[in-house]
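Hi there,

I know you've been waiting on this one. I reran it after we fixed the sequence typo, so this is the corrected version. Both the input and the resulting structure follow.
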Amino acid sequence: MVCGDVLASNQDNTPMPLDFEHDDQRRLVTITVTEPYSPEDLVAAIERLAHEDLWEYAAFYDLRGTTRLPNEGDLEQIADRVKAVGSGRERGPVGIAIRAQPALFLASLTYTHLTKEFMVVEVLLTSAQVDAWMARNAQRRT
């Protein structure tokens, strides 16, 4: 079963910049991020993973449609929340797809460094890397 929806809405009922889909057969959650987004939007997605008992699913964050560069404080806020929400539970594989730009790559590497003690994050720059990550981590189960 594939379930998808917009994570939340603003006060004026316009969609927020995160699309959250989960596929139980593949044990995969795909979070597609568009702009404008904030660290709080990503924290809400992380909290939803924990709340809906999807923590062990593979989590694919698709940020290829964004240009916003998170600062180190944003990354620390997100990493701290992942650690708190995870509460020591085993985390499923995490892949973050970004556009191949040096500043975005550096920010992604900073995030992997911040989270290395409690989860493994793969930074994906090309379609081939995304396809390979999906093949390794989100195979359809029968």
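Quick highlight: The chain has one domain: 2-137.

Best,
R. S.
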